[in-house]
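G., the chain you wanted modeled:
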Amino acid sequence: MCGLAGFVGFEDNLALAKMANECQQHRGPDNQSTWQDDYLAFAHQRLSIIDLSERSNQPFIKGNLVTVFNGEIYNYKELQEKLEKEKNVQFNTTSDTEVVVEMYRHYGIKALDELIGMFAFAIYNKDTKELFIARDHFGIKPIFYTSTGKTFAFSSELKTLTKIPGFDKTLNPKALVSCLNYIWISGNESMFRNCFKLPAAHYLILKPGKSPEIHRYWDLNDKKRYEGKTEAELVEHLDNVLDGTIKRHMVADVPVSSFLSGGLDSSLIAVCASELNKNLSTYTIASSSRDKAIEKMPEDEKYARKLADEFKLDHHEIEISPEIIRMLPQMVKTLDEPIGDPAAINTYIICQAAREKGVKVLLSGMGADELFGGYRRQKATLLALKFNMLPGFIRSLAVATSKVMPVRIGSKGFKFGRWAKRFLSFVSMPLDEAYMRSYSYYSKDGLKNLVTQPFKNAVDDLHQEHKNIFSSKYSYDKVNQICNTDINMFMLGLNLTYSDRASMAASVEVRVPFIDKLVIEEAMQIPGEYKIRNGESKYILKKAAEKHLPEYIIYRPKAAFGAPIRSWISNDLKGMVDDLLSEENIKRRGFLNYPVVKKIIDNDRKGIEDNAYQIYQFLTLELWCREFLDK
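Predicted structure as tokens:
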């Protein structure tokens, strides 16, 4: 797990490479190095996980190929054997980096078909001056790039590219409306018009004097394969697939630890991993008693503690009571983009605590909700189809009641009021629009009212993007259609993004066994009726987990990996809201209509609406502007 960067065509490529090492040092504290010739310069920051010796430092040079690599190839030992037998390759290290280089040397682009893991890497041919860059199948590891025609640069983090002389800081309207609508940025664009993310499952080729060429190398196949299988057959097959991925993700030359929320996903990963590592250490976040008094938070620590005791895990509990006023600006800088999910702070705190105990690798249960129908909004969107079959007067009464229902009673949040308002905001929409609205913070008209004129057209672009993704696959299976949308939207744009940036800021590698090429290919062939069944979310995964976990974990109520954001907005951040979101500041930026912003804040404080996330994102956006635009 590392950081990387490369620069072509600048006045001083090497100086920029050295700048990248300084800027991204947290991604690889074990070693920072550069390499250059008369065409380009590479920078690499190494977090040593496999082959800890200096011989595997990067940029890695072998023959005519130079590479910078970020990630882990979990099947690298099998690929090494293949290369030794079929191509008589002699290896100088025991690293997966050298395997990637030799796979590319002997198989070219087809090498990508054989890699199982998370990766972002660049390979440069010194003889032909050709640069090849690739990103893993689901976008677990990041790559930003920018090109002017005469110059080209790429890096693991956006902040690195913004330091390039002449970097174009023109705002990207679609990214701006996306970060407001979702609280994260969809697609492959960045907040800047001429800076992009290499899409997941794509590679880029740059040849001297040519523009970059980008191609897709893999796509999820939505053909029906498991229809007619019995439930028992599906459960057994899924259990075998999960067993394989967890074994793959334990490959390392340093100890591997695990997140443990006490929920199904992380518990399944941790318990199965403990069968391979009897001394497995686990880490759980707990909320402070003050925040719990204001906002009901999941009892993760109770469940995690009980499970850890039962399976004799080396368990660590970390209370999250951050100095949020101090941490929020730093987190905005860490995340590179205005991402308004406070779960990023949780991730950073827990990774930082683990790192202080010497941990370099943590397993995460991320991805299971997207694959197996674990989110409430997924079930709610399908429930909306049934709601619309009710008599009209019942539906009208429900809508009218929700409008006067509070979201807070006194100082306590009223969760049912929040859920009812959100559910009734999308029940009458077509399925694709309803699903988008289920995790959007604004209606289409509401978003257009929020932003100023230069950004209104981008709202239509945002909705078209979602429609295209939703309709692209699994039209015959509504559950898998929703799951596929989450894989390409929510998982990519939010969960993987904040996890990588927050964990790497603490110099910790997060591995995601559920987001494995083989697991996702198999999971997305399971019919949706086995994912959400008789109102039970993740039905098939829970059945597979019964072999490994106690029922009190498998069938506990769904709990999000969140933070007490409503408590923060009402208390710690109240002064910051009044300061940063003043009429003067909002009008100076020119993005948002101040009367709409003021109404959102006022209605939240009155308890009429639950707008905590919207307000938190306004703060995030303003702080991002101060960090990335004003400086």
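The mean pLDDT is 92.

Shout if anything looks off.
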